[in-house]
Amino acid sequence: MSSDRPLTLRALSGEADEMAALQRVLEAAPAYFHTVTGLPPGPAEAQSTFTALPPGKDYDDKRVWGLYARNEMIGCADVIRGYPVRDKAVIGLLLLAEHWQRRGFGRAFALLVEQMIAAWPEIATLRIGVVPKNVGALAFWRKLGYVETGEVKALHIGDAVVMEKPLARD
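Above: the chain sequence. Below: its structure as tokens.
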């Protein structure tokens, strides 16, 4: 990772400039959308990322973060606190614009998100659902210590393999 482009994680609040930057990041990852949905990213991906909630959760439980290299958003993460049970947090999406992928930023990004989640004292386990045909994502999460639970979750984009790992705290 280049030291001239320090990475920072910023909570997004839904301001227009943030939503435009989030939409640009999502549109800059067309391979992800083609792999997972069979379609290109749509014009309302940022809005969907910002507003989608699982059953029984509200916006107090949702965090959307932008990953910035200096002042440029290069990635985004969507996390639901306390889902599906109180001591788990679900990473609904962790995505880098394609230009930033395969350069070590993904691992750094995931670790920054984990550090943010570690501030939530009740969370003991991290959880993610990965569409099986997204083999690169499966390998990525395995390298970070996530293991398949044996559970398959039906999502709007298709079935997802559920992976979990204990949350490490310093």
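The CA atoms of residues 113 and 137 lie 16 Å apart.
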